[in-house]
Amino acid sequence: MKSRRGFYDVFVKTCAINPSKKAVCQYNNGEYNIYTFSELFGVCEYISQNLLQLECNKDIVGLVTDRNVIVPCAIAAVHKCCNTFMFIDPSQNIENEISDIKFKIIISITENGSKDVQKLSDKKPDKTFSIFNYTINFYKQDNYKNILNKRFGEHSFIATTSGSTGKKKHIQVPVQCIQPNIDDLTKLFNISSTDIIYFSTPLTFDPSMVEILLAFKNGASLLIAPERADVLFPKNKNYFITVWQTTPSKFFQYSDNEIKNEILGANSSLKILALGGEPLNGIKRLRQLKHMDNKSRIFTLYGVTEMSCWACVSELDLNKIIKDREIPLGNCLSETQVHINTEKSTNNSGQIVLVSSTRKCFVLNKQGTNGEERSLKFVDTGDLGEVHNGTIYYRGRKDDTIKRFGHKVNLQYIENSIMECSEVKTCSCIWLPKLVLLVLYYSSEKICTKDLSILIKGKLDEKYWPDKIIKVDNLPMSTHGKTSKHILSKMFENDLVTPTIPPTLAFLEELTLMLKTNLNVEQMKNKTFLSIGGTSFLAIAMCNKLSHVYPELGNLILPHLISNIKTVQEITKLIEKNYNYDECKLKKRFQRSEPKAKKLAMTLSKVFELDRTRVEFQEFWKYDTGKCVDASPTLCIVKPNVFVTVGSHSGKIVTIDTVSSNLQGTIKLNSRIEASIYCFDGGVKGFLGVVGSYDGTIICFTLKNCEEVWRTNVRYMIKSKATSCRGMIYIASYDGVVRSIDITNGEVKQSIQVAGQAISADLVLAKNGYIMVGTLSGVCAGLDTRTKKVAWRGKLSSPVFARPALYDDDKYVVFAEVSGEIHCRTVEKGIKVWIYQGAKGNVFSSLYVRNLEALKWQFVFGCHDNGVYSITVKNFRPSLQWRTEMNAPVYSTPCCLDNNLIIVMSTNGKMSVINSDNGYMVSEYQLPNESFSSAVVNGDKIFIGCRDDYLYCIKYLIIV
Is 900:914 a contact under the CB 8 Å cutoff? Predict the structure, then answer.
């Protein structure tokens, strides 16, 4: 691949040999767009002509783009004109990158009609053209300064380190540095023109260049598609991927079922799975899920951006490698050597150093007096390796070995040990030096936190036991697709600040969590700490953890824990006694301490302000509906009874008496139900329910015994809850129409076209006869039930999934659009009143409304950014009251529990009770699966749907 004009020579040669062959295949909503090599060559030539006209030669070009069909053409054109390029993530702050690297030209590539077009300092493009449904803009930059190392040639690219282990660096990578990788991997992976390589790596991560170069060197095809197993391994074998390079973090986010039956199934087309960029933790899971007849070869890749891209490769024999710590670093790739600096070591371990006389890169933003100091002949990776019988094994980052209360602890060792439990999908252990806390985050479909804690305590010495074990749906990743310990640290620090229980209860809770014992609190109370399995190490660890929320608690109880004189009950009474002193004295005492102590004092002061209320939960009953329950249950009071009714993806509708828990009846449709059921008084027929389904069927049935009254079909999907007015049912569907239906027989009387696209949000009736509607095309509207016409329409910037909310005696309506903006309009005329733009993520949740005082209302809603927001509106001015962080996105609608307590349901199935005055977490309850349903409350019971197919009834008790 040694070439005079870099990637362009490879590109043009392959295009000449395979002009009509498929070069790139791009998936888009179920369809595949195919682009041949000859088509891409034409685009390349056109881009290069524009660069020449802009006098861009031997300069730096910035490419602002996501993965798409234009990318290979653009980098070939840049190299043809003897330039260096650098990818810029369009989702990040482009202005920051522009200030770090001075570009001669910036090329932005955006899909036609995309709203994600970034403005570059409000400049208009110097040139622009469209092709393949993409717009390509050229921006000539002022104050250009070439900072490249000319000795490395013009045909290079600039890679960026992730910044996870230090300050982000920009590395100039000449083509000849990455060329040995492509030659070696072509042979090792046996790449041919029949292969389909998944183009999955973020462009700012240098392994993306390996995917591009492997494809174009060998005339193989690149597939651009979302990271879904059913898309990557479809029924149509023409689009099956055969080569997949990815990070372990991204790969292990797939479910056991997807890995076992599709990715590594018996009939999978996957020839090569190459995992790199971070340590592979999960060999046991791979061994269990890979089908015995699966032919995929699995490799691990090791390397650093400073010597882009890969340095070592190892093919895994799953029959021989049992544990993660047995995975070798692998064989060196061409023109690369690996050394372990073991001079100061007694166990054949030390830092991993990469050496090459030819694969030299250049650090553009490293301090140095001359170029030699910045050009890299050898790289100290900051990683640790261990040598056994001539084989090198990865042992984590240098800063993964920490000192914890006098004991050396290796975080990589903890992660390796935990991943021996095949029920754990992924895990990451973080050390918070300022807090002196060891925290484990993990994701799993099966094992709960308590069981994992027991497993760890049975497997590892106490110095390795985490202070906190937290289960998440998926570990957060950096922009390069690696597990981000930085984000995890921030997540924990954000969750730390709010104590939710009294210090005595916190002490007892930590005691049961910390010790390797099966004793409960009642059995422990008359025993000393050491007699129930405590040690001085555990006492220090526990007191340190407690002190972050209750600053003086650790110092108070530590001597008594270790002295082995006082019992647990006596220590508990000591805590109660000492926490009765005046809060003001406590504040003054801490103001004279270090800044850290001040922070802890402020945290402790919040304990005294908190409502000590907590809520206890108990599952009362559950009903199996056959499939997921995404719909929100509906309560209907039919004195003396209260019924709860809901539909599910199975098409089954159930009605249950909430008092007796007796099933009133079921009714079955042929299509799944996501809409909530609308209940109303049907006169002589009693109370009735109406709901629509996916195939357009609308059914009306009696609540008392689920007998069908009537049904009709409007042929379009229905996800919206109906409403009624003046003897008519109103129901919206996915053709953008609201239909008025005779309440007695189901006859469609009138169709009101609201918008050209679907309506998913529930309809809401204001008491003056106006129906509020929000649509997926961003239209908000009011329908007049007297005229059965649209009274007014408004246009928002994004879709509306949330149910409109009414307030102030139905004078005003509030719409939440997906972009996060909250809009208020008048009900009768749609006049704009106020707008709130402070949400930092997408909003699918409807709003809970609460009147606080005259002319002051509270609106609470969930967000995709894992937050629950409370905004107050006084005198038509919205402002953020509080935001509470959940551990998963919130799609459900908050619900009132009692007075100032509200229930919020996260998508991971966690039901949280929050104080609506201050946003503090009061209690939590975990459902066994995901939930997109909203809770409803009656008396001392909560009703909620879950994706484990059940409707749940949960009793609660508020303890003050």
Answer: no
